[in-house]
# Entry
Amino acid sequence: MTERTLIKNLAALDEGPVSVSGWVDTVRDQKKVQFVVLRDESGAVQLVNPRSAAPAEGEDAGETVDSIISGLSVGTFLTATGQLKKDERVKLGGVEIKLESLDIATVAIAETPIAADSGIDKRMDWRFLDLRVPRNNLIFRVQTTFEHALRTYWVENDFVELHTPKFMATPSESRAELFHVDYFDGDAYLAQSPQFFKQMAQSAGFGKMFEIGPAFRADPSFTSRHATEFTSVDTEISWIDSHEDVMALQEQLMVAGLSAVKEKHGEEIQSLFGVEVVVPSTPFPRIPLAEAKRIVAERGHVIDRADDDMDPEGERQIAAHVQETYGHEFVFLTEYPASIRPFYHMRKDDDATLTKSYDLVWRGLEITTGAQREHRIDVLEQQVREKGMEVEELSDYLDFFRYGVPPHGGFGMGLARVIMLMLHQPNLREVTYLFRGPNRLTP
# Structure
């Protein structure tokens, strides 16, 4: 039996016997010749079968390649064996396979439940079929390359990869947006982030850590940028001087990730998405939040929020300003008010109403929150009380600081938001393998 060859590798082979396996993309059953486009995880190839002479009257033709192709349904998985032929006129890679045999693995139902123009909810119902489209397949190859580049940077710079628990006895930030879980005879919560545990790694003396893992928010939002379960990219480092060290780390990671994607997938992204992957220059622009809000107001948008945070239109406006002024897609918004930041964010030395924190905005959407953490136990306990929380309830967390911890900081970044912006997609559902939101738990 001829060994299976991935379709993307056919062009490098000499003409001769070859075997490929995949699913049927299209069938053209013509009078004199039959064509099948077969697709696998790496690409597509044209299979060609000149029809054989019709059997003589009374002769049993049996099952032939002709008859198998005539009965093929789109989506059928099969193995095709034949002779590889090179022909520059063939649009699919300049090669085709002259068929000798077909071996059907599984037959697909003839009428598929979704079409190219199906709405996103319908496509999400049949996500496994939706993902057979080359464009959607590429999304997750891009994601793989991006994650690998981040991991390569971390590992080469002596970071430790950790896998933190997702069951928590206490909330990681506040009781807002928490999923409560019955846990034997007690209560647990699904982790909103690995925040407490990545800080524990600093007290444990790990120095530098990272994690790519699930996080959960009981947020009933139906926007294009929210999900109830998402993949969080987190990192934490010790012995920093300020949040500037964290921002510098994130710049290096984003450059590494986008450079790898551009090198490996840039042409295919341009072809299938019409998008150029831009590797940003460093340093990224930095604007204090108060100044950013002033700039946004001068552009005609008044932020009307009960808190002091930026709103979505404000993020879009400040991104437009940065693009026009600096020619840059990224901007760090810094010095967020303590009133809208978690209790563990360090306050500024000269103004305790502001924190040593930032949000990273990319093309008008926040993708990251980062900060220097407060590591002094007396200050930390005071900030817990200021937020209306009980020190006793956070005793396990606060123990990390009672036994010594270095100055440290880090960030958390939503992976799907990054991929969505990188590929200029309209919402998270397009770039999430299986999306989870307030009204979606299947498939």
Remarks:
- The chain is about 30% helix and 25% strand.
- The chain has a mean pLDDT of 95.
- The longest strand covers residues 16-29.
- The chain has two domains: 7-106, 127-431.
